[in-house]
């Protein structure tokens, strides 16, 4: 019996045997055979034929016609709820196709209906390791898996544990080919869907979730789930592998539909142009921007030839082409194409048509990406006017336009104006779509971004969490949009200094995007960047660099080097190497980022300022303060032109310039910039924001260093004491992280009379001591297995590490600070 079991893992049945069984089914059930499922065929034909001998159907074939059984060459994966005739016809079509190849060999199918003894539960007594060893090795020996998929819009195999495990075993075996096939009727339906609604095709891939799969036999399900969890790297690995395979299959089918029409000589028709447009949209959805552009170009050429330049379909082709240039960062080319489309739409549809409004929105998006905010708002306002007239003021499209306007205000730092726009969008979405709708969740996400920008991180998390819950309920946990909410929460937690928890959310976003979009999608690269940046924050530079390099490679592959997003990745790599103290590498990446932005966006683009700021910080750490000031001045010039003088980002740069002058001992100049920064922070963020309080401290220190007499009350007390250094309950050398993602540097730290934590360049340095009032400290705790001491204040977390000259362990410092906090009567938390 062991030999029989082994044969059933390796043997298969011939094409003639499949034909004979199908003919037998028609004879036995002439009226119902076309509607019978595999389960029906098993119960009504296979079991009655094999019950007496209690054997598998293949055993009967082996006795009756030995030539019908041979070494399996194809493993068939299918669901038993399918119509058996459809499944068998797919096998015959596949075999016929294989026979036309030059190196064709006889095909023998491992088909479970025939190969397993249907009179007994053949898997009931199999040990757990059989699933992840013998079964997997059997598929590898066969060398090919044929997945019969239907219905295409909600494939049953993607919900069956057995099928998902079979697919994964095929994908994960190097050298094993996996073919996905549909019955002819389903293939035609798929091609029709690609022509009419490409989103329906791409959304199919999101529904693969192995952990939700079912099996007729609960025992089988348990065994398969255990195998997935223990061997295959978990459900995430299975989901990602299956979706990658389906993604490739979907793209192949989309392109094959075009090739089919070309082969039939139908490539000069409007229908062909429409198909090219939809295939282009599918390719763009999967990040294949260059291929998408080729199909949009084909569509445009045919529309111009058959319909003329002045036709709405031609305008749509220009819009689609514009999107691909948008994707690649060529915003000027995109704008030219959108302008052509707008002119055509206005002439053919009228100025007050939704189509004209849509192209206005695209123009607004392009100008927004260029940092031309006034033009962006002008086009969004035109879009809003047309939409309100054509569709009504309470239409979801109007809500989207309000959100777009809010995005511009957010980018300009006009947070209150942004919130007003988002609240208008929220009002419309709640009325038109309801609370539990992705559109409403998008607005929560936008509002969360504003509160994040304002430094109100808890309120930001509240809105991100609302968005996340709605996304999970309406779209599912494993959906690209859900990943956006996880990213937002991660950003807020990171800014709060809760880096370990932030990493968990970034990891969730990364896992979702890997599964749903694949490992080479730009959004996946964004998650790699977030994950890498977070690890850089906690000093885990190896992990950080690995992920940032991965993001860089994806962007180079999908977007090319001359793209703003690629420049952003170079910026992140530069910051990580900066943190590590590898200044030459950091300089190289900053310069590459600057060159790309200058070429693609121009020297005056708002994003150029971030690279100049990074370079300024780098020069500062290298002790080149004059060069640092030049970079910060360049950043300030750009920010004043694009964001205005009274903007939080401009204020940060003003503060950096002040700090450089302070480092040079030029306190008079430092004070001017600190005052400007403080005024801007107060006006935009309010007096209690962490940035505002930090600027106040910088200004206070500058005034002290300048010999001014307008010190605060705290300084007057110190003056009356003759600037005598108080008794120190704890003192010594530590390493402290600089602000704004800075590297660690040595400093002398001491606890002052249980009221302040003080740090400076050395024990004799008194002029530029920095003092953290313990009354503002929320907590002091060790992190990263005791490697970091984190002192959390309102709005900022100070990070210290052991220094080679430290005379006390971080645990001693932590205990001392905690003791001081517990005994401090002014402690607020």
Automatic annotation (TrEMBL):
UniProt keyword list: Repeat, TPR repeat
Domain PH: 727-822
TPR repeat residues: 315-348, 357-390, 399-432, 441-474, 567-600, 609-642
Superkingdom classification of source: Eukaryota
One Pfam assignment: TPR_10
Keyword presence, Glycoprotein: no
UniProt cross-references to SUPFAM superfamilies, sorted A to Z: PH domain-like, TPR-like
Name of the protein in question: Mbre TPR repeat protein
UniProt source species: Salpingoeca rosetta (strain ATCC 50818 / BSB-021)
